[in-house]
Each structure stands twice: as structure tokens, then as C-alpha cells.
Design a protein that fits this description.
Order of helices and strands: HHHHHHHHHHHHHHHHH
Helix content: over 70%
Structural class: mainly alpha
Distance between the termini: 35 Å
Largest sheet: none
Number of domains: 1
Mean pLDDT: 82
Protein name: O-antigen/teichoic acid export membrane protein
Transmembrane segments: 44-67, 79-101, 113-135, 141-163, 175-201, 213-230, 251-275, 281-304, 325-344, 350-371, 392-413, 419-442
Number of helices: 17
Keywords: Membrane, Transmembrane, Transmembrane helix
Number of strands: 0
Region (Disordered): 1-23
Strand content: under 5%
């Protein structure tokens, strides 16, 4: 699929649901087979194109991760990962949540895309100083003793400003059916980060403060180039009435998105605060390795979310499809972790000495990859059907349960070898609660 943008893009992928046949004409079953195959073929081609981008991203991520994890010390890795996580969470409020409306209009009502893009960019400018101020408060509370303020600000700016622009482009192009462009947008930013890591390593490495400058430069170049090339060529017209009418729902989305991401990031804050920088570094490396198991799954999540947005309701067939996808996600995630553990057991230093230190942790937290990926899938289900309020409430509860349970484990069962195995029980409980809420909500959307 061409990544070239046009003023009037054609939606590529499974066609919208057809209307009823005209009365008096019979359907020929023989004609349905090639039509159905064509729809499946388009879906498969779209997935392959997205996966190709994800495959390229995987290779670049391995290079980036290998160099960074073995150039920074474990303590510096823990600090950088936690600061980055803070930026990711604060960045959820970029554009006051209008990113959700941009994605939905791209996938469904493209005539309104220009208005929502304009609203997003105006709200992004308004939200930026608020997000930076919030980051400043967090620095005083949690980070002022572990990293210098300029380095902290550089990392935060990347996550709340630069990366949000790239993420918006990925979602818009995916919603428009431009899977080739979306695939490229998935891979190129990681390539620029990998180039920054290579430069950092070649110059002799250093602390998290030194790395922050390379990190800022690589992401700034990436965002500038990608926005210039891949931003949709459509007319944008700002409508204040649209912002006033949608601001409440946008903030609901921002809060729910923040809470969803906090499910995967809050543990880094708890571990850094209670278990120390080195343990936080080992945990950050383990989670980064676990995230690699989601690479073949995220293209499927993206396409399935687009399909559900177009359908607009949860049918019995879609519920059954979702359950099958859950089984697939669990199987792929667990198999990926076991393969990684087997590789490290045979060749411990294949990814470097610092990564080898995470082997013991990976061998214990066997349920974590599946649950992390399944929670991401649940988030897509919530987003597709617009349950932003329920999503925010559910994820806030899950974040509180996870943070409280993890803090209790670290305090009551030191050292890490004693509490790590119990992480499986915590994650299993979180998944069970999320499953009940998600499919309960889908039942109310069935027609």
C-alpha cells in the first residue's frame, strides 16, 4: 500500500457493511465466496503491511535496547525508564483528549477530520504549559534527588510533546486505511532513537543526564521529518463551538487513557521509591523485553479497533471473535516469554551483561506478558465503543489495586526474590477484574 498522502484519501481495507439487497434480485451464493475472500485478503494485506512495520520496529528496538541497556548503568536505566514513564502518563493530556476524536473521525466520518485536527492542535498548545507545570511538581516530589532538572525536562518534553505528535500521525493514517504509511510511522521513530543510542555509545556513554541530550535530539529530528511528510493534507478549520461541545468527553478520554497506561507504568514508580534504583533498572529491562512480545499483536489490535468503530456495536459474533483473540494474545505472549527465557538460559550475555541480570526476574513473572497485552486489548475494546467513563473508573481502580499490592509485597516480603513470584497473582487479579468489566460493558452494547 502506498504511503503517499492525498487530499481525498481512499479508505483501504474491509469495506463498510453493505445494505440490504434490492427487492426482486436473488443473491448468488457462488458470488459471495470471492467477495468474502476479497474482504479477508484486504484485511490480511493490511495486517501484513502493519506487521512489516512492526517487524522493522522490532529489529530497531533490539538495537536501541541493547545499546542503551548496556551503556547506562542499571541505576541510570531505572531512573531514565521511570522519568520516561512519568512523561508518558502526563502526555495523555496532550490536546485535552481530542486525539480520540481525530482517530474516530479518520476511521468513520472523514468529513469532520479537518475540524478535529484543528481542535487538537489548538488544545495541544493550550495543554503544553499545564503538562510541563505538572511535570515540575512531580520532579520536586519524586525525582529531584536522582536526576538533574535539565535532563528531566528534556526527557519529559520528548514524551509529552514530540512523541504525542508521532502517535497522532500513526492513529490518523491507520484510521484512514493507509496502513503502509502507518507501518512506516511505527518504524522510523524507533530508527531515530536507535541512531541516538548508537551516537551515545560511540561517544563513550555516560549518565542518564548525558543520554537525555541524545534522546531529545533524536526524537526532535524524527518528529520534524514525520510531521512534514505524513500529516494529512487536508484543510483544517478551527471551530470553538466544537471544542466547547467535546471538551468534557475529551478530558474523559485523556483521564481513561492515562489510567490505562498507568496500569503498566505505576509499578516503576513504586519500585524506584521502595526497592531502589538498581532494582528499578532490572525491572525496567525486564518489562522492555516483555514488551517485545506485543510486536506481532499490536497491528491486529489496531485493525480490530478500526473494524469495531465502523460497526459501532457489539454483536454476538464480535464478542466471540474477541474471546478468540484473547486466547491468541495469551498464547503468543507466553510463548514469546518462554522463548526469551530459553534463549537467555543458553546464551545469557547475548544481549549484554546488564540484560543478563534480568533473567532471574523473567523466569518468575510468567503471567505478566499475557496480562499486559490483554489489558491493552481491553483498552481497544473500550475505546471502540466509547465507554470512556467506565474505562476511566475501571482503570483507576486497577491502578490503585496494583500499586497498593506491589507496595505491600515489597514492604512485607523483602528482598525482590521473595515478592517477585507474587506479582503473578496480582496481575491475574487485575486481568480478571478487567475481563468482567469489559465483557459486561459489551453486553450492554449488543443489539
Amino acid at each position: 500500500m502506498s504511503a503517499t498522502l492525498s487530499r481525498n484519501p481512499t479508505l483501504i481495507g474491509p469495506p463498510p457493511l453493505a445494505g440490504r439487497p434490492v427487492s426482486g434480485h436473488r443473491l448468488n451464493p457462488a458470488r459471495l465466496v470471492p467477495e468474502r475472500w476479497a474482504a479477508h485478503r484486504n484485511a490480511v494485506l493490511g495486517y501484513v503491511q502493519l506487521l512489516a512495520g512492526s517487524g522493522g520496529r522490532l529489529g530497531l528496538q533490539v538495537v536501541y535496547f541493547f545499546l542503551l541497556a548496556n551503556t547506562l548503568s542499571l541505576a541510570d536505566m531505572g531512573v531514565f525508564a521511570t522519568v520516561s514513564a512519568a512523561g508518558v502518563l502526563i502526555g495523555c493530556f496532550a490536546g485535552f483528549g481530542f486525539q480520540a476524536f481525530v482517530m474516530r473521525s479518520a476511521a468513520g466520518r472523514r468529513s469532520s477530520l479537518g475540524a478535529y485536527l484543528a481542535a487538537y492542535h489548538v488544545c495541544f498548545v493550550a495543554a503544553l504549559p499545564i503538562m510541563m507545570a505538572l511535570a515540575g511538581v512531580l520532579y520536586l516530589v519524586l525525582f529531584r534527588t536522582v536526576i538533574a532538572l535539565p535532563a528531566y525536562a528534556a526527557i519529559i518534553f520528548v514524551e509529552i510533546a514530540l512523541w504525542r505528535q508521532i502517535e497522532l500521525l500513526i492513529q490518523v493514517n491507520s484510521g484512514l486505511g493507509r496502513f503502509g504509511a502507518a507501518s512506516t510511522l511505527v518504524s522510523l521513530p524507533v530508527g531515530f532513537r536507535a541512531a541516538a543510542a548508537v551516537a551515545f555509545w560511540a561517544m563513550g556513554g555516560g549518565s542518564a543526564e548525558t543520554w537525555s541530550l541524545y534522546y531529545l535530539a533524536g526524537n526532535l529530528v524524527a518528529a520534524t521529518i514525520l510531521v512534514a511528510v505524513f500529516h494529512p493534507r487536508i484543510r483544517m478549520r478551527f471551530r470553538p463551538k466544537l471544542v466547547r461541545g467535546k471538551l468534557r468527553d475529551g478530558l474523559f478520554y485523556a483521564v481513561s487513557y492515562c489510567m490505562f497506561l498507568a496500569q503498566g507504568e505505576v509499578d516503576k514508580f513504586v519500585i524506584l521509591s521502595l526497592a531502589g534504583e538498581r532494582t528499578a533498572g532490572i525491572y525496567a529491562i525486564s518489562i522492555r523485553l516483555i514488551d517485545l512480545t506485543a510486536v506481532p499483536l499490536r497491528p491486529m489490535f489496531m485493525m480490530y479497533s478500526r473494524k469495531m468503530i465502523q460497526v459501532g456495536r457489539a454483536t454476538g459474533t464480535m464478542v466471540r471473535e474477541s474471546l478468540k483473540i484473547e486466547a491468541l494474545v495469551a498464547g503468543v505472549s507466553t510463548a514469546g516469554l518462554l522463548a526469551l527465557v530459553a534463549l537467555l538460559s543458553v546464551w545469557p550475555t547475548i544481549l549484554g551483561a546488564n540484560v543478563a541480570s534480568a533473567y532471574g526476574m523473567l523466569a518468575v513473572i510468567v503471567l505478566v506478558p499475557a496480562v499486559r497485552n490483554l489489558l491493552e486489548f481491553h483498552s481497544e475494546l473500550f475505546f471502540a465503543f466509547g465507554n470512556m467513563g467506565l474505562r476511566a473508573a475501571l482503570t483507576a481502580g486497577l491502578v490503585a489495586i496494583k500499586a497498593g499490592a506491589l507496595a505491600a509485597l515489597i514492604i512485607l516480603l523483602p528482598p525482590a526474590d521473595n515478592w517477585l513470584v507474587w506479582l503473578n497473582a496480582v496481575f491475574a487479579l487485575i486481568y480478571l477484574l478487567s475481563f468482567i468489566a469489559v465483557y459486561g460493558a459489551m453486553r450492554t452494547k449488543r443489539v
